Amino acid sequence: MAPTTPTTAGEAIIAGRTALGIELGSTRIKACLIDSATAEVLAVGSHEWQNELVDRVWTYHLDAVWSGLQAAFADLAGAVQRDHAVAVTSVGAIGVSAMMHGYLALDESRELLVPFRTWRNTSTASAAAELSERFGVNIPLRWSIAHLHQAVLDAEPHLPNVRRITTLAGLVHERLTGVDVLGVGDASGMFPIDPATGGYDAALVREYDALAAGRLPVASILDLLPEVRSAGEAAGILTAAGGALLDPSGALQPGIPLCPPEGDAGTGMVATNSVAPRTGNVSAGTSIFAMVVLERPLTAVHHELDVVTTPAGDPVAMVHCNNGASELAAWVGLFERFAVAAGAPIDADLVFETLFTEALAGDADAGGLLAYNLLAGEPIIDLPEGRPLFVRTPDSEFTLANFMRAQVHGVFATLSIGMRVLADEQVQVDRMFAHGGVFRTAGVAQRILANALDAPVAIASTASEGGAWGIAVLAAFGIAPDRGSLADYLRDRVFRTAAVATISPDVAGVAGYTTFLDRYRAGLAAERVAVESIAHRTTSL
N or C: which end of the chain has fewer CB within 10 A? Predict the structure, then answer.
């Protein structure tokens, strides 16, 4: 039953001692309201959504962005009313984060020129290769500058009208505030950042301006990119139009300060207290990526690694895999549907928990079974498109436990390949935190990941709400008095009493995963044949 009087949390909400984080993830838009002093979660709201493959382009329609934002906020406001007996009319600060990278090209009126091209698209190989060679740093296919330069190479007809490019977080932030800025972490996935200045690398800006001269409608790439802001810096206030966009009911009042918008990598680092050197984290969702904060520059350029930054601007080595847990979730959905068809429906969370628990009973090498979760192209293994496959030999141990173990193994396979490159670079990591929905069943994916990385993997209870909580913390950091550095703020205030569960790798598990990964690499030839032989179904909006 809903309380009849405001709770202590309700009093904090009324007083504005709060921070609101909104994250547009690949499958869910989530809103998280926290106490700005303690970072305690007061309420959450969410809205499910999915990307679409339209004309071989992974995209989200912008109408779905705005309706999804409104739905997530309305869900949060309803939770606040139900649990704390107050309305959300204001908050202390707001932060927006979203999937990094991709391509949102806007004209003079800030209208979208072409459908949003997400990080998942792999059509930028020529541009990424040219830029990587020209810059002397790895420019992955998913980076915004790779998307822009591919449009330049292809002389796309929209180019003469481009006046700004941004990320999804940047676009939402601009609509809420009227201010075109990005947090440095999100900006670092658009164009390389110079850690010494905290802005776009001036030498590489000049290099690109020379390369694209006469082919863009502006004098410099800087004319297209958002301004860069570091964590804690002011980034605008909620306008009346922005408030109405987020909350059409009119309850939310304008004038609320916003922190710099960030990418999901940065909010994941915050959510796992991984912004200091020698710390790292793994985020597992539709994509999966690992972030390790560097003590020193890498000695060489690696196509498996790109260098981005923390929300405070410190260099981070990123292993980004285009594919994560989506194929695993599809198989779990199949089992859920079987239960319904059999007349014995099971709660979806219980289906996940049952199947994940079963995975631990499987053989350490998954019994010779192979699961390729490759829905999209995967640059780490030079795969231009995805074709999910399940493969076994006639003499493999085909059991439910091994099947599920192979599926979880497959989620971490390309990540493991990339992390081995970091190990060869002698990069030291004191702790590796994990977060994401795949870790909800205690001790399963966490244990398998520890074996895949041959390193301890920790999960902090405070990160249960993931990136939405992380951007809420960044919003709170922006209004905190005497806050110090971001690393100090997280260590001394946010995570000071956080409970952490750590699982270390075991010898048999590491050996089993190594055997699985060897088979996985060998079987990639079948993936490439599948890409060449089986065409996509064609769809259109």
Answer: N
